[in-house]
Specification:
97 residues; alpha+beta; three-stranded antiparallel beta sheet; 3 helices
Length: 97
């Protein structure tokens, strides 16, 4: 019986990412650490709502009322932290809803 990779438990990473964000018509870039199960910038932005919310609060603060635009440019490094109880497909499905 073959092992199906979609049923494997997702790995949780402490990832160092380079992000760009706009604040008062200026663009800034920072290197920050995030905890996520996704390993590509697109997947983090598309499916990692909790990670993006934490980034918004970290980069903008609670009092910032204008539009918040954050782009994850690249994942520089990722360290394995633990295994998730859900598979990667289940995480994606959970975040779509």
């Amino acid at each position: 019986m073959k092992h199906c990779p979609s049923k494997e438990k997702a790995e949780i990473y402490l990832a160092t990412v380079r992000v760009a964000f706009k604040k008062h018509k200026r663009t800034y870039e920072r290197v920050v650490q995030v905890v996520t199960v996704f390993d590509t910038p697109y997947d983090i932005m598309q499916y990692g709502h909790h990670t993006m919310r934490n980034l918004e609060e970290h980069l903008y603060g609670k009092g910032y009322r204008s539009d918040k635009h954050i782009i994850i440019r690249e994942v520089l490094e990722k360290k394995f932290v633990s295994n998730s109880t859900l598979s990667l497909d289940e995480h994606k499905r959970q975040n779509k809803e």
